[in-house]
Amino acid sequence: xxLLLKRTVNSKERYYALELIANLFDEYLVIRTYGSxxxxxxxxxxxxxxKTLNTAQEAMEKxxxxxxxxxxxxxxx
Length: 77
What we know:
Layout: E1 2-9, E2 12-22, E3 28-36, E4 44-50, H1 53-69
Antiparallel strand pairs: 1-2, 2-3, 3-4
């Protein structure tokens, strides 16, 4: 599952991408990538590993809620 969020700050567009993937060791990764839409390389990448799908989904929802409070929204909205 992959989510893309965007917001505009001081007329600069920023993005925040969340991705949930399974690895080969029966663990789940939540990968967060963020940066400016004008740059080709991301400003940062954060990866967290979780033992179960449920805990990974909860962590992803928590990050999503925090980012929505900061003004990030889906580009489709």
